Fold each of these.
Amino acid sequence: MTRDVPSTTPRTGRLRAWAGFAGAAVALFAVAPLALSDFRLGLLAKYLCTALVAVGICLAWGRGGLLTLGQGVFFGLGGYAMAMHLKIADAGAGNLPDFMQLYGSASELPWWWRPFGNPVFALAATVLLPMAVAALLGSFVFRRRVKGAYFAILSQALAAAFALWLIGQQATTGGTNGLTDIRGFFGYDLQDPVNQRMVYFVIAAALLLTIALARQLIHSRYGELLVAVRDSEERVRFLGYDPANVKLVAYVVAAGMAGLAGALFVPAVGIISPALIGIVPSIEFVIGAAVGGRASLVGAVLGALAVAWARTALSEEFPAAWTYFQGLLFIVALAFLPGGIASLAVLVRRRTARSTVSAGTVGETA
């Protein structure tokens, strides 16, 4: 009688993680800038922002079972916080942003715009504002034990309400157009390809740091507790933990990651609008994580990148049918491959192990 030996030890797992991290750093900071044109590198920067959101979804949904269909809200809060500062900076001291001169009648900035003229406040708000909103919403929802489909519907309704509010405030938020024509980024001209590459490197570094933070949380005692809450809330409550607080932490951290992604998306693309943060974008974020593998950080990131790339490529060929492709991807991933593409390697290893055991059994019988 033999005892099963784990296929990987903690030390091996750490070595693999460091090797993967180093490989990703080489690919992002060396290979991509050399292999891609400025235009393609700009597209990759945009895709990396969606991957940032997917890291948070992996933590909240993949590990905590929280189907977050409203990440567009937090993405938008971070994006608008950054865009408001950049529009104020572009306008210059004492001047109103261009869209306010066109649509508004006020002679000075609205009171809630003024703090965003401070770069430190604006940078902090891109992460802390989404986290604060998530903390308020999460405290209300989780303490009333709202979960499953009801939580998903509430988060999606929040995204729809936020987008509608932005559209209705044309004089102060740009309405349907949003905040556009952003030209500078903390003193750097975004029309300069060199500065665009700098923005790409900032986004790539933020993605790697976010993955490292998420991995640390997942492999900590908190990560184990989060999985336990996902699998059996009542047992965790019986052990003396409050499941609401455990879920709240994951939800707030995921919101902060989405806010950071939105903030970095603005200098990469030069625009933020309600069309980028409503129900459809929120679902797209989830689809990317689901296709790649919501329980795997690497899978969620690669899935988000693949779906974002496919959206750009296929929407050019099938502009009216691309949303159907997205829906089909989501259905196939959930119905036939719940673990996403990342689970294929596990399935192959299991099948190989079963074949080996079967062959050994046959040999012993013979």
Note: The chain is about 75% helix and 0% strand.
Amino acid sequence: MRVRTRVLACVAALALSSAVPAAGASDRTGRPGDLVSAERSAFHPLPGQPTATRAWKIHYRSTSATGAPNVVSGTVIVPQDGRTGPRPLITYAVGTVGLGDSCAPSAGFPRGTTMEANLIQQLTRRGWAVVVTDYEGLGTPGEHTYTAGSSAGHAMLDAARAAIRLPEAGLGADTPVGIMGYSQGGQAAGWAAELHSSYAPELRVKGTAAGGVPARLAGLVPVHDGSYGSGLLFMAAAGQDAAYPELELDSYLNAAGKALIGFFRNNCVAVDTTVGSFKRISDLTVRNPLETPQWRARLAESDLGRAAPGHPVYLYHALADELIPYSQGTRLRADWCAGGTAVDWRTIVVGEHVSGVITESPRAADWLADRFAGKPVSGDC
């Protein structure tokens, strides 16, 4: 009996260890959205807080900003509510958490330290399944491609595919899907919405709710250069360099710039924004990369608004947003409206960037609930 118990324990340990993918080429074959691995995890908005959910950490195949196959991690969360029939699925992208692997949402969910977990719990309490991507390079080999729009959009859509292909989640091909995100997550959600028809048309996307969207990165440079949000600017430069190695960011940095970017790559947003505040591009570079055609072209590739989502969108932005100017939201609204998308627009009159996601999340979720219920939307373009 003891021998049998030990054998079973060894088998279980081997099964668990085999769930973690290697970084080899064999993991980079197959369809986007295919599962590479899945292992049981836990979802806690706060340390030890029960949620009546089941959760799995997954690794799944996706596509980089340059069209190359990659592997991304994430978390699938399903309510334990006794429901056996179909339920909606939200593919959710969090706002900026940092560049270090320890910042990944999947790393914090079991410990109750992931930002926005309380907002995600509002969705699971509605009976919805949620899949949260970690984004490319965040918690997986390689560097996080922060602000590289198409990479993030692919990661969101493929996360939905992976959740549907996870047998234990109880979802299926007919699962209605909602796309949701704010700030960096809003950019990812916007890209997922624009890419849906061409990249993942089989997903039954009913609507996208996106807020505080950094729709045009070049327009944020004068806002953040030398301001208290300047750390975000340099994090974005590191993310673009990770997505497009030919940009060779290090060749533009002086010693102080290289040290700061190195620090960012191993830490999370709260520390990064503090350490990176009030720095100018000229303080950290030997020449400004944003003055080169290569950098300008790559930044422009992450612009939203050049394609119109083929499903309704709830778009919201704080009038006093100090990190992503309100004009970024109104221009994106105009672009999508011009393309024929039914856009429901919401101006957050009281509040700023961070408070916007907290105060508006319930309204955005109500809007998605109406889409799942099949209620019509005409938009207010």
Note: The CA atoms of residues 254 and 374 lie 55 Å apart.
Amino acid sequence: MSRISLLPGRTGTCAALLITTSLLLSGCGAGAPGNAEASEGKDPKAEKTVEAVPVEAVAASRRAVAASYTGTAALEARAESQVVAKTSGVALAVLVEEGQQVRAGQPLVRLDPDRARLAVAQSEAQMRKLENNYQRAQKLIGQQMVSAADVDQIRFDLENARAQYRLATLELSYTTVVAPISGVIASRSIKTGNFVQINTPIFRIVDNSRLEATLNVPERELATLRPGQPVTLVADALPGKSFPGTVDRIAPVVDAGSGTFRVVSGFGEDAAGLQPGMFGRIRIDYDQRADALVVPRLALLDDGDPAVFRVRDGKVARVPVKVGYAEGPWVEIREGLAVGDKVVTAGKVALRDGTAVQVIGEKPAATVAKAAPKKAENRQ
């Protein structure tokens, strides 16, 4: 708080000075005709323009849309065999290499057969001896020179010798390792000169003429899937290509732990380029609508029940819709829209029901709100 000290004898002079200064200041404010004219000279019909929110919109249209189940799985060969040596021996010749196509029964490796041949010769000699003894006993039994028990014993020994001969012959055949199935040599773990132990894996053959992919499908889809339905596969290793197939088999039971069932899809001659082990995205189409009303999936709002923002006369309106099948970027609209209705696909976050919008790419249509004219007050 400022203090004003008044000296004796000068009180009247100071008071007169203060009053004069106040009158001058008030006269400057009130006597400025320019300020009044400026305030009264504003256009009462000034216009206020409401800026429209820029959005992207797409018109609802008709196209074919399919109902499908999609999943991911690794491709597997329908048939695969691990070739093992059924006898031991030194590999004298390896006849095939990795990547080579082979047929069932085709020789792959030749092992040293000398020991097996000697076993065959030995068992054959024993068999021939017993055959002669049996023939001789058959003649003597008619002369009652040999008992029936001795003849039976010779016959049993002969059958055993024949079995030993067949076994030795089989062991000799094992010295030539053959392909159990037709396919391609996927791996080779033997070289010429190696000693091969019995039951040692030496080749892996994969039949890639028909590949399979197994999906674990939720049980809610059990009623919609069945064998023979069309399948489309897209492999990450082969971008831009799709491969057709069919549903081969469906498991008859649902796994209680996971709540899923197995669906096996097959891919045959049209799957050129696919290899076992590739990872693919699989789509199984189980129904199709040839003339469905669709909009982009991006048009659907994420705030509860299905709805879209429809553009009409420069403004948007929130319209509830009933959706149907979805395929790729499209979703079917069963109710709520008509062909040609434009729906917002980008810029939905800033919108509310009735918001003015400007569709990008279309001619701007400014929305103008006229301000109410202000009545000038009469000053006296």
Note: The helical segments are 11-30, 33-40, 114-142, 148-173.
